[in-house]
Specification:
The protein is an alpha+beta fold. The protein contains six helices and 13 strands. Helix content is 25%, strand content 35%.
Length: 268
């Protein structure tokens, strides 16, 4: 641990910035004797380092940012609610710039609301539920879809949570996927995860199998499973430039309820 005293804040109380653990710093108001700000840094599965700062005052934020950025290697990333202009400005003062925007949808699971009650896969295609998916076929599909997306929109158009991991594993937990299948191969997939709340992490279909209703059938299946478990709504994130994904959710009659900005600081 290390500590450095600074003076900041409207009342000019001395503030001590202390590294309390790997990737964590605290700001202690020496006069009040309490923590008035803290940071956290975490390496995501895709290998990128994401940072966050929680501080009472902008001056304390700046001190914490300076201490953290002096020790952590670039590039560094953070995510903020786009409506939080003050927090965005704090990160921009620290040298961060906007890299991408993600729309957040809150999707009802009731087919009477989404219109997915009759969304069935096309003839010759079946939905394989989560838990029954063949891992080797899933990985082959994942690789093919990634190659197609990278050649067109670019994989960075996908939600941040589905970027590749450093060890090359691009699938993760196989049990979170359902797929659309023919007799000999998989054509599309959907991934649903539950951390604090259910979230659709990815919906994707091979280019040659698109415009046949497969994505809607996968979505109808996933929402039906969640509804059976008494889940009434599920979150989904769509990168701003991914127009096909936006069209899929807009077609359900739902609209974004919020948006997040991913910011990056490329150089130390």
């Amino acid at each position: 641990m290390n500590a450095q005293p600074f003076t900041s804040g409207l009342n000019e109380n001395p503030v001590t910035i202390t590294r309390v653990a790997d990737g964590q710093w605290h700001a202690l108001d020496d006069t009040l004797g309490r923590v008035v700000g803290r940071t956290h840094a975490e390496r995501r599965p895709d290998g990128r380092m994401f940072v966050s700062i929680d501080a009472w005052q902008d001056a304390t934020f700046d001190l914490l940012a300076a201490a953290m950025l002096a020790e952590l290697p670039a590039p560094l990333f953070t995510v903020v609610d786009e409506d939080d202009a003050d927090l965005t400005a704090c990160w921009q003062r620290a040298g961060f710039t906007v890299r991408r925007r993600e729309w957040e949808y809150l999707v009802p699971t009731d087919p009477a609301v989404t219109g997915l009650g009759g969304a069935l896969p096309p003839p010759g295609v079946t939905i394989v539920p989560a838990g029954a998916v063949d891992e080797s076929l899933l990985r082959a599909l994942d690789r093919a879809i990634r190659d197609e997306v990278e050649a067109t929109l670019g994989w960075l158009s996908m939600p941040a949570e589905v970027l590749a991991r450093p060890d090359g594993d691009t699938v993760g937990d196989v049990s979170t996927y359902a797929v659309a299948a023919t007799a000999d191969r998989y054509l599309g997939l959907i991934r649903v995860e539950t951390v604090n709340q259910p979230r659709i992490g990815l919906v994707a279909v091979l280019a040659g199998a698109q415009r046949r209703g497969i994505a809607r059938a996968l979505l109808a299946h996933a929402l039906g499973v969640l509804r059976h478990s008494e889940v009434t709504q599920v979150w989904a994130e769509v990168q701003e430039s991914n127009q096909p994904a936006s069209a899929l959710f807009d077609g359900l009659g739902v609209r974004p309820v919020s948006s997040n900005l991913e910011l990056v600081r490329w150089r130390g």
